[in-house]
Design goal:
The protein has about 850 residues and is mainly α. Helices cover about 65% and strands about 5% of the residues. The protein is built from 47 helices and eight strands. Helix 28 (about 535-550) runs parallel beside helix 30. The longest helix is centred in the middle third of the chain and has 18 residues, at about 395-410.
Amino acid sequence: MKGRLLERDAELRQLQAVLSQAGRGLGSVVLVYGEAGIGKTSLVRAFAQEARDRARVLVGVCDDLVTPRTLGPFRDMARVTDGPLHAIVDVTAERDAVFGASYQELADRSTVMIVEDVHWADDATLDVIRYLAWRVTDLPSMLVLTYRDDELRDDHALRRVLGALARQEVQRVALRPLSAGAVEELSAPHGADAGAVLEATGGNPFFVTEVLASPDVEVPATVRDAVLARLRELDDDTQQSLELLSTIPGQAERWLVERLLGDRTAALDGAERHGVLQADPGHVWFRHELARRAIEQQLSSAARVAYNRQVLAALVKHPQVELSRLAHHAHQAGEPEQVVEHGVAAAREAATAGAFHEALAHYELVLRWSDLMPDEQRATVMEDSVWVLYNLSRFDQAVTRAREVVQLREQLGDQAALGQALITLSRTLYMVNDPAGSEQAVTRAVALLQPLEDSRRLARAYTYLAAILTLTDRLDEAITRARQALELGERTGQPDVVAHSLNYLGYALLGLGDPSGAEHLGRSAAIARAAHHYEYAQRAYTNLVEGLYRLGRFNDLDEPIALGLAYAREYGFASHEYNLEAHRCMLLTLRGRWDEAEAGLRHLLAGEDPGVLASFGLSALGRLLARKGDAAAGAPLERAWRAAARTNSVQAIALAGIARVEAAWLAGDHQGARQLAKVPLERTTARGAERYRGELLRYLVRCGQPSRGFAGCPPEYALGIEGDWRGAAEAWRSLDAPYEQALELAASGQPPELLDALRILDQLGAVAAADLVRQALRQLGVTRLPRRPLPRTRANPAGLTDRQVEVLGLLADGLTNAEIAERLVVSVRTVDHHVAAVLAKLNVTSRREAARAYTSSR
């Protein structure tokens, strides 16, 4: 690929870390491997370009020749060096002489020696590589080997070398295909369908480039022609067999191949020898999807349909065939009844497994034939697809389709089914920030279902009514409805309703300060996971985090946030990931890790609009920017407030409102702060909102408005409100909240405490509050004040990233890499890489020297 390397930053950092270690005399072998076209050469060439400033680079290449060049890569190196290799390679070209010369090249000075395409190396070259690999660990150099791991037969000579290296300290860099995001980035300038490109190429960078080079051709000629050239070398039986098999994506089972080809099965041996097919005892498959696609494209439409009908007929007779395969071949064969039959079953199977993109694709395929379905079946399929759209966070589409289902159900006149459709519409409306519409829909559903005595659907209606009551902070009503739903759900044997009821029962109880709510949420997640209701399990994780944060149980948040984020990313719940990530960044802000929090929030807000959840990220970022004295804080704060006001949720209104009040106080606008506090104060009088109300009152006291503590006010706020700054500061210190601790120290009005507060605020980068403290100190007659910290770019001449600065600070505190990893919630290997990069940038060789450099810079 030309231009910037996509998704190879981690690999480049790994190579750079190895080079840094080599510079300290800790040499290493690096194996860079992957399939043809995966970008091995691009990676090592990019690394070599960067490495030239720190080491000499020698590159040699093994060629795909009938007879490999003897010692070919070392001959390449000899041409660009005036060292020992130059003196002997072209003279003697003897392996033993090259041993010593190549070793001396690595020993004399820091060197990056790269040997590319080692799978084509001659025996002599492999012997030299093995010789160097055993000795490089004591040298100031690194040996980089690239190879195609998918082309190594069991008897390949390189396997012997790799076997010997297994006992060595070897760094392995396995190159993976590009992600969907990277393929989309490459496809965008061409206007290409990124999903189709990814499917066709498997994310192979070379094939992606080739496909995009021919945007009007599904399979580029450069790939297709190569495949077809190989095909023309085969006999007619083999070619016809490959044409039939080309209609089968992925691997074809041996039994299926034998059933389709009968006596012609043996004809496939030639295709395997020519590299068109690969096989094992159980399966046969094309070497690459593009090869299959190239052959399939040459078929006439009649032949393609006929072949797919043969495949479908063979598959339906087998009892264990995947439903998605049946749906695929039914569509390709032009069999609409079977498309509907197999497609709906496949969609439900995929949704149950949490494969929502695949489920949606099946539903959309089925709905192409909706005219063939009875209205009742069409309504059911459409409603099922609404929940798939919901799980994919496509909320606007989900609302549109849910309204269509309601309209269709109204026409059909089935009141029970209409009630169910209104329940579905209720949830989708809430997610597009229409809580009033959501409540109206589910209330109508309850009214329809109660007279019918449809206990199963009524249980579901009650639980969704409990949800909207909880989310709009009518917690006592919510608990009543949730308990009704729970009892009905258990009686009717609906584990999804039980899980959902426990979810909002637990959330409402937590909101009222009842710790038993956490137990209900844990039970909800367990029941939902066991019943494969993944989104309900995800809601339990998310609601637990929201509830614990609301109660100020900050030390209990790390584990549920980590578990919830991992679950959301595994199953693709983007809206829940947004919510949890926003709370993670809010927690980081509380703990004083502002740069990390800001980076996380900016990344979060750069994504798609999360609808009802938008205010969380916006208010968190706006508040952080206001603290940093950033004039850009106003825009996200106002957007957060508008979004929060539409939700009618106390939590959203409180978080956005407090952020605006704090920003006004920091700006010295006390009257404005008091005005901005009015609505949040009105909304935080009920149980469960004590923490928000306490924080609001604390800021109003700072603005000169007298206040008193109240029953249930968290002690860290109550102490500050009552004027006990010392007790409040200690309470915040115990919560690991340095900013709040500093604000309480500043409330002392005493120079020693004000100076302590200033030190903390300067370290955090809390420019706005630090300016207020400096002003207070000057008014007290203190003239010798600490200088304002330099901007990070000037204060950090080594060019450390924010994360590296954080790692360096923990390293200076004496933490081991394992302890740093635990603190930052990352892997030890990641910390190893950060530490190596820090040492290299600081130009030091030990952790002790790095710690001294950190201390002297403070």
